[in-house]
Amino acid sequence: MKTGERILVEFIKDFNLEMPDVGICFTADIEFITASLFKKFNCEVHIVTVTEKQLTFIYLLHLQLAENGIPDIFPFHADNFCYNKMKDLSISDYDLLRGKYTITISPLKTALNKSEIKSLNLI
């Protein structure tokens, strides 16, 4: 990960979210907040780094996100991310459909085990 991604590295380390041979996949409470909408979901989160392109993406894996018009893929931009130590990772951005929004990601436990990840078809 790039130097500007220290926020994400701290979040991953503090919650012990990385699994050798699998990557970063965990269960979290997700809150989606706009000026007129509040939605809360429990879903799987997958953090992927494409080393060749030096890009990192956060994927939220829950069908109801798309059904509610909520974004589920977030490229890492340090300006949009904030880590509240041992609490949550928040992403603030703008979407044409919803306008300004914030998504908070609060891990419920450490990394998923291999059988949980296989059930999601991620490996």
Task: Give a verbal description of the structure.
With 123 residues, this protein is α+β, with helices and mostly antiparallel strands. It contains three helices and eight strands, in the order H-E-E-E-E-H-E-E-E-E-H. Strands 1, 2, 3, 4, 5, 6, 7 and 8 form an eight-stranded antiparallel β-sheet that branches. A hairpin with a 4-residue loop joins strand 2 (23-33) and strand 3 (38-50).
- Radius of gyration based on Cα positions: 14 Å
The general outline is globular
User: Largest sheet at a glance?
Assistant: 8 strands, antiparallel
Distance between the termini: 21 Å
Mean pLDDT: 85
State the order of secondary-structure elements, H for helix, E for strand.
HEEEEHEEEEH
Write a concise synopsis of the structure shown:
With 123 residues, this protein is of the alpha+beta class.
Give a quick set of tags describing it.
123 residues, alpha+beta, 8-stranded antiparallel β-sheet, 3 helices, 8 strands
List the helices and strands and how they pair.
Blueprint: H1 6-14, E1 18-19, E2 23-33, E3 38-50, E4 55-61, H2 63-67, E5 73-75, E6 81-84, E7 88-95, E8 99-107, H3 114-119
Antiparallel strand pairs: 1-2, 2-3, 2-8, 3-4, 4-5, 6-7, 7-8
